[in-house]
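Hey team,

Filing this mostly as a record. A colleague (T.K.) asked me to run one chain through the structure pipeline before their review meeting, and I want the input and output archived in the tracker in case anyone asks later how it was produced. No errors, nothing strange. Just documentation.

Input sequence:
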Amino acid sequence: MSSSALRCGRLLSHRYFGTIQTLALRVLTTGMPNQAYQRLRPLVRIFPAFYRFRHKIKDARLEADRATVNAALDRIEHERQGRVYLVADAFSVADLTAAAMLSPILQPPEIQYPLRLELPAYLQDYRAALLRHPATEWAAAISATPRSFRRSVMRERAVEI
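Output structure:
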């Protein structure tokens, strides 16, 4: 996925970024101690401008970025060709990578840094639409695969190579 797709995938809508500064800061400090949020909080007024500049975010690109995310999901589904796994008939690094890249959207129960905030309605709607895509449904199933199984398969693959 491209960086623009990841920005969109992180559910930070460009159009509303300036009006949800606290939410954006909470999302970006997810998994960090509360001190990180508290230290950055005074910068909340200038943060949106910096973030937009740093990541080349433009309101005009929102729909294009969302289309990029959809294209990436379509590609995963195309590559899968109805199989349980992306590559052949066994779990692989490709499956693990795809599921990991989609985890900010999926928010599976075992995610290391879950969002601890309620998303605004427009982001909930966007996320719900993404979760209905066959590729995200597949990634959710892959994410639900027990880690012990995934580790054992990856060890077996490493020995084969």
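Quick notes for T.K.: Residues 3-160 form one domain. The first helix runs from residue 3 to 9.
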